[in-house]
């Protein structure tokens, strides 16, 4: 095991609590520092957990609590105009799970607290100082914290990423604006079915909501990026009018927008992704989750990859003799996998905003796509069947396990 016995984890979202739990299991005491003064408290929309993400949660004993609050998606379909096709499924894996972000935060935090992990709120990181014996985090309120290592689990706008490498790239906009709500309209599909729909002016997806109604998410193409703050400064009633105009010619898009309430509309701003980050660590500081790799939500893997990385980082610190060797091994274990997923998601993003010619040809191209780019054995089998062997020792050999 490395000389690391204590850790500062910056960020209390998804990657932070899982990192603390995994480090705890590896024999390292971690404290989570969150910039906001309290937990998520209902803020945020829905995210997907792929089978590999749930498998990684099993390593830290959080899988059952998470699946208990999630909705399983057993089937998927595609709709282009009036044409609906069932999409092939990947055999031998559990279903995709969709879960409200705030609920996931709560469950992961509760699990970490139950394991003895302390959480400190209102701790916005401003700087960190490294020495040969440790690292000191400095927070906006004037307080400090000391530990052997500092883990940046602080998301796509990571402060830690900038401290590790001031020249590190920032997030990039995808050209899509994201919304979510639950409509009163009931779609005529089986429960547990997620439908990906290409409307005349935008892409959307939907599935029956347990308890009634239909949950939907929409990605509208946009000319210029908008931050979450900018997008939420626009009244939700105005956004809903825009959505009703954009999807007014679509079935069931028209009914979904018409029966949704403005006060329940989740406005997420422009979807963002992280380009490849050259340096994931420096000295005693290291990145995990979206701070290092944030694929588009089209991948369905953002949260799952963050959870995987948290577990793999803990394994490396558990098994390798010094911090630098452990961090290097962690990057070798993760970089190729996460960048491959990000590249696949980027291709899907282009398909979400097809031009008029592409929309015309899409119904003709779907049968071919079903045999090629939509074949799950060719596209997502390696992603979703991936299971981390916690008990296997990590080595410094190139062919890492």
Automatic annotation (TrEMBL):
The keyword Oxidoreductase applies. Pfam families: FAD_binding_3. Keywords: Monooxygenase, Oxidoreductase. The keyword S-adenosyl-L-methionine does not apply. The lineage of its organism: Bacteria, Bacillati, Actinomycetota, Actinomycetes, Micromonosporales. Residues 7-343 form the FAD-binding domain. GO terms for molecular function: FAD binding; monooxygenase activity. InterPro entries: FAD-bd, FAD-dep_Monooxygenase_BioMet, FAD/NAD-bd_sf. This is Monooxygenase.
